[in-house]
Amino acid sequence: PEAGPSRDAEPADEVPPDSASNADSSPLFTLRDRRIIRSCVNDHPADFPAGATERPELPSGSERQIRRGQTLSVDVQRQVQSLPLACEEQLPKLSSDLERVVYSGRVLLIDSRNRILDMFYLDESR
Fold this sequence. Notes:
Helix content is 40%, strand content 16%. It has helices at 3-24, 31-43, 60-65, 74-79, 85-88; strands spanning 81-82, 98-103, 106-111, 116-121. A 4-stranded antiparallel sheet has the order 1-2-3-4, with no helix packed on it.
């Protein structure tokens, strides 16, 4: 009889973390966002330093670091480039703790702790 209630309690305990992670992942790049950003970046090449929008061959350690859920290193934080205002104005407004940035051919959605919430490559069409 005791095993039944404890089994019922386990799934209930697992639900809140799943709900929380879904809430955390809600501000993601939609297909429309990606299309607007790609078009805007192509229309405003002068707003980016040389190489910011191109995908280089990164060292393997750096490549592993640029993933959803990872935190940007201090070196990468210095190199990210904010999206031009002309691009931001075409996109849904983000909460004040989020930012869209460009780094090595990728567009990243980062939070105030420099954690990557979402990302995509500028040279991919999806």
